[in-house]
Amino acid sequence: MFKQICAVAVVATLVSGARGVGAQQCCGDCNANNEVTIDEIIKAVNRSLDGCQDDGVCSQPGGQHFPASGQTTPYGAGSDGDVQAGAPLSYTDNGDGTITDNNTGLIWEKKDDSGGLHGMKNTYTWAITPEPYTNIMNGTMVTEFLAALNTPPCFAGHCDWRIPNVRELLSIVNYNGSLPAIKDAFFHYSGCPGCTDVTQASCSCTLPTASYWSSTTAEYSDRTLAWYVDFGRGRGDADDKRGALPVRAVRGGL
Predict the structure, then answer these.
(1) Cβ(186)–Cβ(249) under 8 Å?
(2) Which of 33, 180, 218, 237 has the smallest count of CB within 10 Å of its CB?
(3) CA-to-CA distance for 162 and 12, rounded, in angstroms?
C-alpha cells in the first residue's frame, strides 16, 4: 500500500483544472496506518481543489509542523500566550487504542486504568537490574513492555512500537496551566477512572504526577542516567536508569 498521495498525482488522474500544484498537505494516509481509505482519497482530492492549503491534518515527509506550547493566555506583549507560535495542538483518536498527533505525525499508545498492559500506573526499569548493571537500554520497559506490544498480532496491528526520545515526549506537553500538563486527548478527567478499554474514546489516561521514561541517555552524566518527562510539571529531567517509571510507546517519525 502506498503511504502518501500527492495532490499532483491524484488531480492529474481524477480532476481536471485543479488550482495549484503544491503538495504539502495533499496526502492520503492521514493517520499513518499504512493504508489509504476512500475517505482519505476524497480528502486528498478536496485539498487539491482548494489549492493544497495547509490545513494541519497531515503532511508530506518533511512537512510536519512544530507544535505550539498550548498556552493561550497572554502575559504581556511578545509572551508565549500573546504570540502563540507554532501549530495549534491537534490530535486524532484512531479508535484502536492509539492517538495520532496531527502536527508531528507520531502515533501514541493510549493508557487506561486497568493495571494491564496499558495501565497508566505500571512502572518499568530503563536498564538491567540488579547487578551487573549496564548502561544499555535493556530493562523491563524493553523486555516486558515493548516485547508485549510488538508480539504478533501486535498492538493496534503494528509491530514497530518503541520508547520515544525525550524531544518526542516533550512534544505532547501542554503548557496551558492544567495538570497533568498534557492535552485532554491523553487524559480524559471524567472517563479515565476505572476505564479498561483504550479503544474507547473516553478511556485515555495519564498519571497526573508521573514522570515517563524517554529512550534518551543523559550524556552529561556517567551514562547511568536517562531523561524523563514529568507531566505533573511539564518539564524534563534525568534519573538513574535502574529506577522504575511509567512509559508510553510511540511509533512513526522515522
Answers:
(1) no
(2) 237
(3) 38
Where does the pLDDT of residue 111 fall: very low under 50, low under 70, confident under 90, or very high at 90 and above? Answer: very high
| DSSP per-residue string spanning 21-80 | ---SS--S-TT-SS---HHHHHHHHHHHHTTS---SS---TT---PBP----S--STTSH
- What are the residue ranges spanned by the domains of the chain? 1-63, 69-254
Please provide the DSSP assignment of 163-209 as one string.
Answer: PPPHHHHHTTB--SS-SSSB-GGG--TTT-TT---TTSTT-----TT
Residues in Cβ contact with 84 at an 8 Å cutoff, skipping those fewer than 6 apart: 68, 71, 72
Give me the long-range contacts of 115-119 (CB less than 8 A, separation at least 24): 116/196, 117/145, 117/148, 117/149, 117/155, 118/198
Quote the cell numbers at residue 28.
492520503
Phi, psi of 77 (to 5 degrees): -60, 135
Question: pTM of the full predicted structure?
Answer: 0.75
